[in-house]
Design brief:
Order of helices and strands: HEEEEEEEEEEEEEEEH
Strand content: over 45%
Oligomer: single chain
Largest sheet: 7 strands, antiparallel
Number of domains: 1
Helix content: 10-25%
Strand order of the largest sheet: 4-5-6-9-14-11-12
Number of strands: 15
Length: 240
């Protein structure tokens, strides 16, 4: 019974001195193209965030991927901007290969070798992976998110349309449309004479974190003293 009591006391002390604290969920929103030149954080930033393009898409292949790491964010909500979010996105083409344009747009190497201008052509975007790293320890996870905005190039009038996962979008939306965060979506052509490219996307992620507080030196000394006395008492009781 003393052994159980001893371990229960040590466990209680550990939880008291090193409590796990759930951080506030934050929504991180950023907009970027495939080469990182337009990367900007629009929500959840600290003003000191950094963008790293971890991988660029490959031109003229059926499917490819690109990835970002956003550093110097305060995902843990502890007032220290030393956390980071990494995400990898995929893009695949139908009716040709993925065309990576130098201006940050994507197209299809089909009928017009770079734009979407045929009903057989489409591009599918996907969120492949996402992860959070906390600079001060603890755990973080992405509990929701994905794409929530896409921009079109050369889609400028209401007679030119694109299909966004089955919903018609026309140029009257000034080339940009916003939607609830999704992990995947497809942009297609409606066979109406339009000739467009798909530009930079905007992404939204909800981050949940749990961190363990670091005890003060006095707390460590107290814990060590109590643990030592407990072991000493057990040793004496065995001798008796």
């Amino acid at each position: 019974m003393r052994t159980k009591t001893t371990f229960s006391l040590l466990a209680a002390l550990t939880m008291t001195l090193w409590p796990v604290v759930a951080g506030a969920d934050i929504a991180l929103v950023f907009r970027a193209n495939h080469d990182g030149s337009t990367a900007v954080l629009t929500n959840g930033g600290t003003g000191a965030e950094s963008f790293t393009l971890d991988s660029e898409p490959t031109d003229n292949v059926a499917s490819t991927s690109y990835g970002y790491t956003i550093g110097n964010i305060d995902a843990a909500g502890d007032g220290t901007a030393n956390d980071s979010l990494s995400a990898v996105f995929g893009i695949s083409a139908a009716g040709g290969n993925v065309k990576v344009q130098p201006d940050g747009n994507f197209g299809v190497t089909g009928a017009n070798a770079g734009n979407l201008n045929d009903v057989a052509e489409s591009l599918t975007y996907s969120l492949l992976s996402s992860s959070v790293t906390l600079g001060d320890g603890g755990t973080g996870s992405v509990t929701g998110g994905g794409f929530n905005q896409i921009q079109f190039s050369n889609l400028t009038s209401d007679t030119e349309t694109a299909s966004l996962s089955g919903t018609d979008m026309d140029g009257s939306v000034t080339g940009t449309t916003t939607f609830s965060p999704v992990a995947t979506f497809t942009v297609g052509h409606n066979d109406d004479g339009s000739n467009f490219r798909v530009g930079p996307a905007r992404y939204r992620f909800v981050i949940t974190t749990e961190t363990a507080t670091i005890p003060e030196p006095s707390s460590l000394m107290l814990f060590g003293g109590i643990a030592g006395l407990t072991v000493l008492r057990r040793a004496r009781s065995r001798q008796g």
